[in-house]
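During the reporting period the student researcher (J.K.) took over the structure-prediction task from the postdoctoral fellow and processed the backlog of single-chain submissions. One of the processed entries is reproduced below for the supervisory committee.
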Amino acid sequence: MPHRLTIWTALAASIAASLAPAHQDSDLKQALALEKTLKGVIQDAEPSIACVVVSRSELYARFGQGPASDNAGKLGVFDVEALKAHALFAQLSAGDKKLVLAKLDLADPGQVPEASGSGLVLDERGLVLTPYHLIQGATKVYVCLTTEQGSYADIYAADPRSDLAVLRLLQPGGATRPAKLGDGGKVERGQFVVGLAAQLAPGFRRAKASAAWGIVSNLRQRLPAGLADEERGKTIHHYGSLLQTDSRVNLGTTGGVLFNLHGEAVALVNSLSAVTGPDTGCFAIPLDHGLHRVLDLLKKGEEVEYGFLGVSFEPATEKADGVVLRTVTEGSPADLAGLRPGHAVLAVNDQPVPRNDDLLRALATQPAGAKVRLEVRKPGMAGREKLDVALAKYLVAGKVIATEPGSRPFFRGLRVDYTSLIAQQPSFTFGAIPRGVLVSEVQPDSAAAKAELKSGFIVTHVNDPRGHVAGGVLRNRPAPQGAGRADAATAGGRPADSQGDLAMSFRYAICNETFEGWDHERVCRTVADLGYTGLEVAPFTLAPRITDVTPERRRTLRKQAEDCGLTILGLHWLLAKTEGLQLTAPDEAVRARTATYLGELARCCRDLGGKLMVFGSPAQRRIPAGATREQAAEWAADTFRRVAPVFADTNVDLCLEPLSPPEADFINTIDEALTLLGRIDHPRFTLHLDVKAMSTEDTPTRALIRRHGPRAGHFHANDVNRRGPGFGDTDFVPIFQALKASGYPGWVSVEVFDYTPDPVTIARDSLRYMRECEERA
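J.K. obtained the following structure tokens:
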């Protein structure tokens, strides 16, 4: 920060010099008293300031020290000795070892990390408050305290909408001193504030926090204009909640803290203002009553739930004295309370809301389930009407991290949430918010799992004499009225008893090359609208080589799928349309190059959210001319063994697919695939089953599935005629009977090779037929 406390000494001297001699001593004492107060604030508050050092490197995962796959906030410590003992590290040159160690060891004071900022110690347990955007996407976080201590940290809880996160030190020690929290809502214009920030200086990271001073120059400010459109509306601070000081914040001091003269923390610095120009000053998030509620939940490791009304607004006018509603979502809290388009909301809990942002800010301070009183003016009505509304839940954009279940614990393995979340998904374009509760999580092997309840079901009745509760895979379509015996609905708005009741247990996906020439987002929307919950991706549809798909592009692809309620379950056609790669190459250099590329595919699969890769690629697995089948098997096993550590590090399974002649001349049967898997002998390598491929074996397909289903990592559904299920003579009822009997737990994914008549018909009719067959099974 540019202003140092020492300026107060000069200021005091200047004041004293300008005073008349008769008053000089008295006024100098007052100036020195103010200086003493400021020094006292800094001395008392400094031990509660921390420097937060962040890395987003994927190298941690490659060396077995990445974030936990089942816990987004569990980043863990960095173990130098474990790194040195890792097999991949041992293969590096001395220079590369030095570079890797320097990049990953955040505890090294001389290291220059990817990002850093400040934080505020909240309690003796080692909880530290910091901005969400600072730790977003982190793979490791290290916290340095001004008490000469340091510790790696997990993300205990994180809330994108408030832009706040709480870290938990993994080795807190005994010298953490929590800050005193004040009420940022009581800060006034002209009030003095002291800013403290632990700016990163390599080699001096544990130095005292930098200090600055200033006054509060403005209140209820928005994040500055000039931000990209997609950045607006993501946090509550875009609605005018920030305070502004005349002290200019430096880049890198995000998370710095403003204190009042009582030594109480009243605001957290947000460095987004620093990119908009030199005259904006410092913007900070006031720790007011609403943010104290957020902090209380984050300190417990719980999700912050925000209130949702279910309306959209007309554009604001210059002389607006209320918020005029444009739309009211059917089934929303606003609808149930009697609000309609054209009504104007004038106040929330007796606080006037003359403009749209005022209403958004007022609702943002309310939790889900809260009851609020609205003052409403209806067209043609002279007076005001007061309505009591129970808010539903707002869908927060971005990754929410919560380590504790909070107010929605598991009950018999089941966790539920508000159905209002469905109506806020991007592809929700019609219908009402369904009544009931949304199943958000089901614990494996629980009573709920044994009852075949699944994430996405809507529960509308409990112990209802009319029949079951739940139904199918609900994404973003509402449950219609009179949904049959299960009183629930699935994608497409059809009754549960015709599209997936509790007896159904499989998750359905489709391969994306079916939609040749379509962009990814359009594929996701279409696939999801047809009722699938998974998408399987052929790498050649993304780029000529998978290394051409940047990390940013991978995040976009994954988000587009997840926004539609889809899981990208994995990759297939792994080596299709590549050059110079061969699984069975006699040349060791070619095998090494092939293994390296498979490793890059595994990393991309992980980045997309996938868990499996299907190795078919017939052209890249042929027996070389003049070689024997035994030699080809050994060369293939060598290639796979080379890349096995990457599959272990990425938690991705390689599913080996037998292919029938004439497509391939190597690994034609399940027994041959199992023999090769035995050579590889690695838990991440497993079997893939394909209906068309199994049809050429001597043993009936249903018998093969019953025998090998427990070992299978994935399953492709298609007809013997290379078209989709139901487009030929293959009967899928015994196939589903065999899958159920074998206990196969994975996806059923449609893969076709004949793309007639068109992608939508293939996808729609294949899914309809499989569901009918599964129900009959």
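The committee noted the following: The chain is about 30% helix and 20% strand.
J.K. will present the remaining backlog at the next meeting.
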